[in-house]
């Protein structure tokens, strides 16, 4: 058996990549000029590239490799399942053991009352399912005017037409005709960037009450659902003020609006509980899952649906599904991932070891002149960069210029830390331990020092007016 691996010089592979491979969320011409970094293998929390560098992955891939890389059990389960039943669908009155077992296990781990799973191949697909499911739910209940869905600016819910419309990324909406009709966005609870002189508590309440205002504007009888990430991930790890979520819950209850928690990042241990909804204390009707469900070893996502919604949807034919809904190999691998998370007590590790160590390390980094603060929940965190800490000032340069510089300095120091605008993002594999957190902090500090020197040298240490 041969694996597809690195058997050519890096420059040749880069040239082939540039010639034929179109990258997501990338200016491909720029990348072609620069050459993509080629990742060849990974183990634990470290990636290896084609030049033999050992890179600490502070992002767990794309927020997904919760159990870390290189778990041979996952490969064995996949191989066994492929030999036994590589594929069968679940459309036509058929099912299979991996889908049954995974749905049962997910229902067991999910909060009370969330006992049904509709599978998809990704988070984007699952959110497309959610749009159609909540609208169908209300139509079946005789309230077919309830079609509007309220989301938030700077939310990320995926990249398909539906999920990208749910998301609140203006640079995505600018291309290809999004958002689709019936999706509305309120402001996000980002106190650091938008809170001005308000206290975080007052700001959290004010931003939550925008939901009530939007419901009034659209008409109470026209709103199907509100969707949000318990803690925004791709928007920059925005931990909302404590006043925010209780107020949102109150408003959803009052106006009989379904609450969809997008748990694609927060789910499966990232915040120290199985789901971010538990961490922030909300009771969603539907939870979107993907990423950590399989730790990225296989593409799989889904919607965990409450009894009430499942009952209504169950009484009709829901004309929706994906060829790979509940794919047996992906389901078997996800089930193995959940076994590892449970048997190795990885959530306890997050709560007792990983998250406190990460928090302490980042709090120490916060003394750096470029770092404006620390936003952290469990093992997702961000460091906003600023030219002036006390006023939480933004840079005069275009948003993302300094963040990008810092990301490049991180990469040069064998650390993956992403940037969202001028915020640095941290979301390591959940299994990371103290020694590797120390490595993380040392590399991050060096990268920040180098960024600071570069920002100063280029005269960019200036606040936007
Ligand atoms: C990544 C992500 C998605 C989209 O998942 P894909 O598998 O990339 O389609 C949806 N919601 C959130 C919160 C995400 O982080």
TrEMBL record:
Q: Which organism is it from?
A: Roseobacter insulae
What's the superkingdom here? Bacteria
User: Which cofactor(s) are needed, names only?
Assistant: pyridoxal 5'-phosphate
User: Has keyword Transferase?
Assistant: yes
The record's section on PROSITE patterns has:
AA_TRANSFER_CLASS_3
Q: Name one GO molecular function term.
A: transaminase activity
Q: What are the protein's UniProt keywords?
A: Aminotransferase, Pyridoxal phosphate, Transferase
Against Pfam families, the record matches this protein to: Aminotran_3
The family this protein is said to belong to: Belongs to the class-III pyridoxal-phosphate-dependent aminotransferase family.
Query: What is the protein's given name?
Result: Aspartate aminotransferase family protein
User: Where does the sequence pass through the membrane?
Assistant: none
